[in-house]
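User: Some background: our group keeps a shared notebook of sequences we're curious about, and every so often someone picks one and asks for a predicted structure to add to the entry. Today it's my turn. The entry only has the sequence so far, pasted here. Could you supply the structure so I can complete it?
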Amino acid sequence: MQDIQRTAIIGSLRACRLFAGMSPADLASIAEITVVKRVDKNDYLFHQGQRSDGFYIVQSGAINVHRVSPSGKEQVIHIFRAPESFAEASLGSGEIYPVTARAVQPSQVLLVQRSGFIELLRHHPELGLRLMASMSSHLHDLVGQLEDLALKNVETRLVGWLLKRCPDPRSPGPVDIELSITKTVLAAELGTSSETLSRTFAHLRGQNLIGVRGRRIAVASPARLSAFLEGSSNR
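Assistant: Of course. Here's the predicted structure to add to the notebook entry:
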């Protein structure tokens, strides 16, 4: 059983962009300092300000990474899914998690332990470059999110979110999207309220662009949705 789990861990590490292309020997070394964690829906992995144990890779499920304001308001930074990594920034000098992480559905994650990974960095400096590239990618995503919040309305953000989940945004045929998160979490990810999100879904339905039944969203035509988005951007 331990061999099976070790093989699964190495497979997840290889699939993660942070470790893509690494040698089997190096992946095996990282697997030695990696712990499997299972979390139920709404369970927390860590809280903002908590001392860092390491960073994480999602094997299955979805993890809501967010910050909490002094007033208690939650701002979603990203919903991480397999095989994404997160919380690498906690390896820095601060040694604390700058965000909070909570499972939004039953999930399994890998914890790459801080002390062991820092020791590996001493012997494999190229890992540091990979780490910097990963954090740069997260920063790029965050900047894009901030630009969306500042420059785009909720409808435009939702349409963009839907198109990213269509295999071909220019396809004329219908596409079904199954939400893996609740609409409340989606609203938070888009930086709006549940009520505004519901009104936005209703407006898109009224335009015959989508249909909504529970967690299933039927996109009538990604091509039409793309054209709608381009028209909205030009207004």
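Suggested note for the entry: The two ends are 59 Å apart (CA to CA). Helices lie at 2-15, 24-32, 114-123, 126-151, 154-164, 183-189, 194-206, 222-234.
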